[in-house]
Amino acid sequence: MKPTIYIETTIPSYYFNSRADAELQVQSKWTREWWDGLRKNYGLVSSSAVIDELRDGEHPFQQEKIALMREVKLLAYVEQISWIVDAYIARKAMPNDPRGDALHLAYASFYKCDMLLSWNCRHIVNPNKAEHIEKLNTEMKLHIPRLVTPFELLEKDPQP
After folding, report:
1. Which of 137, 136, 103 is nearest to 120 (CA)?
2. Does the model's pTM come out above 0.90?
3. What structural domains does the chain harbor?
4. Dmax (CA) of the chain
5. 125 in the Ramachandran plot: left (φ > 0), alpha (ψ -120 to 50) or beta?
6. C-alpha to C-alpha distance for 148 and 145, rounded to whole angstroms
7. Rg of the chain (C-alpha set)
8. What is the mean pLDDT of the chain?
9. Which end of the chain, N or C, is more open, meaning fewer C-beta atoms within 10 Å of its C-beta?
């Protein structure tokens, strides 16, 4: 069975990055390399929260980002996810935005995704937060997804 990866909002955003910043350009390159060449090795899932974030406001390539997510299975919202989000926020594991990072982590944890893929290295793929998240998920008897960037998967991608 293929490892399951929860796709967070930064992945389609970086795939279609239009900013000139050199670091963002490299991260976008790695995102496209992983998406175009290696995503087939994984079961991709996400949530309507990602689609909602992509629909918010107006930004370059907005429709393309949404279209990229059409081939990704969306996980159903269940009430327990709200409880998990509240716990992450109350225990300071995630920022105080119930529609943001805590929600993505809650989906990935509740649905026992093997990994959560993101470029949000401040709040999600952050080694300083990983131990806190692991402790909370253990206390709540939740699965602990690996928090990774596309670059990490380029280096360690399983062979089919």
Report:
1. 103
2. yes
3. 4-156 (3.40.50.1010)
4. 43
5. beta
6. 9
7. 15
8. 92
9. N
